Amino acid sequence: MLSRINKIRDSIFNQKLDALFITNQHNITYLTNFSGLAPNEREGFFFLTSQNSYLLTFPTYFGLYEKGGDGFSTLNITQTKKISDHISEIIQKENLKTVGFEKENLTVAELESLQNKLNIKLISTEGIVEKFRLVKDDNEISAIKIAAKVTDMAFDFIKTKVKKSVSEKELALDLEFFLKKNADDIAFSPIVAFNENAAIPHYLPDNRKQLTDNSLILLDFGAKVNGYCADMTRVVFFGKPKNHWLTIYNTVLQAQKLALEKLRANVAANSIDKIARDYITSKGFPQYPHGLGHGVGLAIHEAPRLRIDSKDILKENMAVTVEPGIYLPGDCGVRIEDLVLLKDRGIEILSKSPKLLKDSIIL
After folding, report:
1. How far apart are alpha carbons 245 and 242 in whole angstroms?
2. Which of 71, 260, 340, 346 has the most Cβ atoms closer than 10 angstroms to its Cβ?
3. Range of the domain at 65
4. If pLDDT is split at 50, 70 and 90, which confidence band does 272 have?
5. Residue where one domain finishes, among candidates 133, 166, 195
6. What was the pLDDT predicted at 69?
7. Can you give the pLDDT at residue 363?
8. Do residues 125 and 27 lie in contact, with contact meaning Cβ atoms separated by under 8 Å?
């Protein structure tokens, strides 16, 4: 963790900041290995100066990190000593003049509160920590690979639960239980969608929707290990699929194959999206309403973005998804998604679950 902290310290020095106040929970996990933080809560804060680093957290977590960690000490936020009190002391002790904050994460109310309570110049920053999270180190890659392996195991498991009259919600809960039992947590709430419901990319499973013969099932799910996520989508058919569903499936599969063939480090992310998008539209189907893929790490959706308007250049040891789709409202949706590690001269596909059509029919 100290090496990561020092990289951020060098970065804020280059931006002529005396300190950085970090509120993004994934960024705090990245710098402290404090993996219990809920991304949508305010359970911890990190304050980094040229001399010291501080994890600020509440009594509910303080006992876990009371002695600090690699490169940081821990401060306890209480009713009598609030965040602003701790930061004011640090500002005075280290004679700080400028403090950066994460403009994409700090709320207006939080910023106004700090401005009222701190006698210092607050400067907005963007992506200081995130740019270092883009390329994964060996430990991060190891965690992601384990998460991907458990995700593959979950796919094998859930196929045994597919039966007539089972509901979308039941299958989603089966997936969630398996992932939580065999990994640290779920990367996100599993998506299970039957037939026309699969045309909604981020559909919410319904307990009233029950499986019937000759149906399409879209499954999107992932495990989380040591704070790092995996992400995979597969489509299976229960019984005999409709002929045009098979055409759609093979079109999506070929679009993904073409994109994977060109995917590697040092290429523009938008060029990979264009390959899959152009192939799908050339076959007479509508464009998918999302990017081809995204980075995966501590967050399930993070940079880089593989989409048509992306300016990202892909680098070795980035972990990204490749997930083209075809969505026909009122009929069906097909998305096939793999998690991929970028290499200097190619890729390593971390999602090993079968996706050929012959392996996707459950009779």
Report:
1. 5
2. 340
3. 2-133
4. very high
5. 133
6. 85
7. 72
8. no
- Retrieve residue 134's tokens: 């883009």
Domain end call among 89, 110, 133 = 133
| Contact predicate 289/163, CB 8 Å | no
- The encoded tokens of residue 95 equal 């004679």
User: How many domains is the chain partitioned into structurally?
Assistant: 2
pLDDT at 37: 78
- Rounded Cα gap, residues 201 and 327, in angstroms: 8
In angstroms, the Cα distances linking 158 to 210, 245, 353 are 15, 21, 12
Residues 97 and 173 in one domain: no
DSSP E strands: which ranges in the chain?
Answer: 19-22, 44-49, 53-57, 73-76, 98-102, 121-125, 185-186, 191-194, 215-221, 223-225, 228-229, 232-238, 293-295, 302-306, 319-322, 325-328, 332-335, 338-343, 346-349, 361-362
Tell me what the mean pLDDT of segment 259-263 comes to.
Answer: 97
Contact 280, 287 (CB under 8 A): yes
Q: What percent of the chain has pLDDT over 70?
A: 100
CATH code, domain carrying 60: 3.40.350.10
Q: Which residue type is seen at 229?
A: C
Pair (111, 209) in one structural domain: no
Residue 69, beta-bridge partner list = 72
